[in-house]
Amino acid sequence: LPVRLLHARGAGLGLALLLIGCAGPSSPHGYGPWEGERAASHIPAPDLSVTDVLGPVSGQGMEEMRRLDHQRDTVAIRLRRAFILVETGRHTLARTELNRLLFSQTPPSVPVEAFARYIRARSYAATGEADRAQADLERATALATASDLRTLIAAERPAAAPAPTPPVAAAPRVDLAFLPRSGWGARAPVDSRMVPMGRVFRLTVHHSGLLAGRGASDESAAAISSIQKTHMGGNGWGDIGYHYLIDPDGRVWQGRPVQWQGAHAGDPERNRGNIGICLLGNFVRGRDGQEPPPAQLRALQQLVVGFCRQYGIPAAGIYTHREMRVTTCPGEHLQLAVERLRRSLDGLAQASGG
Ligand SMILES: [Zn+2]
Questions:
Q1: 311 C-alpha vs ligand 1 centroid, how far in Å?
Q2: What is the pTM of this model?
Q3: If you measure from the C-alpha of residue 200 to the centroid of ligand 1, how many angstroms do you get, rounded to a whole number?
Q4: What does the pLDDT look like over 63-109, one tens digit per residue?
Q5: How far is 316 from 137, CA to CA, in rounded Å?
């Protein structure tokens, strides 16, 4: 079944709310530099807003496209161009433009990705690729900080069972092994403070935000134990918030058992069906940060590939914390690594016809 999508007008309100909810739609507004024809220049350049990006397209959009060509290249213009291409049936061009926005060296901001995912979902729906449309809508939903947008998009999904999403089928088989909770001296959880996990359909990658040493086993155990103390004592949670923790040496430690919903993504709605994976270390750029060591990244990849297979999670179901809410977690270094991983898994799923 093709996914029914919102009309641009209907999406308007929700996306507007999304933008209000974000850190700030601070795209510089106003008139582009006078680079193009004078006749075109008195029309303001599109802003990163629902009205400008998803507004109605007149005719084949040729007139507007010509005008955009003469304005300064901004993300709002690129999104608008992609939207016109989708609305006028030029899907290949539209997706090239959108993929460039989504997978560039510099990751898109949260509002830009939400727009891009939403527009790409319309394109997939128009060409009958319901699974991919669904995956993009799910992602747009997760990026939406305003609950109104999530509700709005949810209302557009098929009422019956969700369309199957392409699992990462072609990925190599891995055997997952975890160090037990006893290995880091876990305190007993308080079950009454937790809720059961339900169906797993996504996962989120974090960093601990604390510089990690060389990865000696006892150091890692102490670090994990101290995270649990903060989560249970300071935050009053039922257990450590993450389900798995990976140390610099690539050991994977069992955190909160997956039968319980985690406490890591921001709120109960974001934690729903969401496995939390924390890499010990601080992966921000600059003096205060560090690079994730290769052994740690290899372990992350194995873990993610394993969970994608086990739970049928599509590549679009792999998130980083900052894609869930406004935060620096998991730091730029790890953010880029996860984006690379997601691209490679997306490639595998598409190559296998998923
Ligand atoms: Zn985090």
A1: 22
A2: 0.55
A3: 18
A4: 888 888 888 888 889 999 999 999 888 888 898 889 888 887 777 87
A5: 10
